[in-house]
Amino acid sequence: MDKLKQxxxxxxxxxxxxxxxxxxxxxxxxxxxxxxxxxxxxxxxxLQGEPFVGAAGQLLDDMLSIIDLSRKNCYIAxxxxxxxxxxxxxxxxxxxxxxxxxxxxxxILQPKxxxxxxxxxxxxxxxxEFRITREHGxxxxxxxxxxxxxxxxxxxxxDVSKRPDAFADLLILRNKALELKLI
Length: 183
Ligand code: URA
Prior knowledge:
Blueprint: H1 2-9, E1 34-38, H2 43-48, H3 55-66, E2 75-78, H4 92-109, E3 113-117, H5 119-125, H6 132-135, E4 140-142, E5 145-150, H7 153-158, H8 163-179
Parallel strand pairs: 1-2, 1-3, 3-5
Antiparallel strand pairs: 4-5
Bound molecules: uracil.
């Protein structure tokens, strides 16, 4: 993983490299049976080089703690490793340029569960038409890995009416992790 990280830190495969402060590679133990994947770094993440460290990250940490998860016992990464300007969605070509790093991370991590945080990650990793409102908290099994998606923590900051559903999704994740004897 360290070698992969070193390669990623010097990547110039897309134009996001020219506006980044830091590459945001990912954090957590290797291997990890549960992996969370967001869309891409925001301003705080770009400045600190770590995923989900801003307000949305604080909420993610709080959510994880409800089911005894943390950065110490699961891995957190993003679809793109460099911040898109003004926090816009990463473009398909930026995702294409970067997804190889995530695929290599996942090959090393060997997760049993992948939780997509928000629509962008879900459309990339689960299926291209994924509708977060309709399909959050549902499971898709591919090649022995269980995939689900949560509302993005930023969406939960903006719209508190989604939080009861987000809480239910946490319990769905906990039940799957128990069923798979991961916790
Ligand atoms: N939003 C994301 O999708 N990823 C981060 O790392 C931070 C905010």
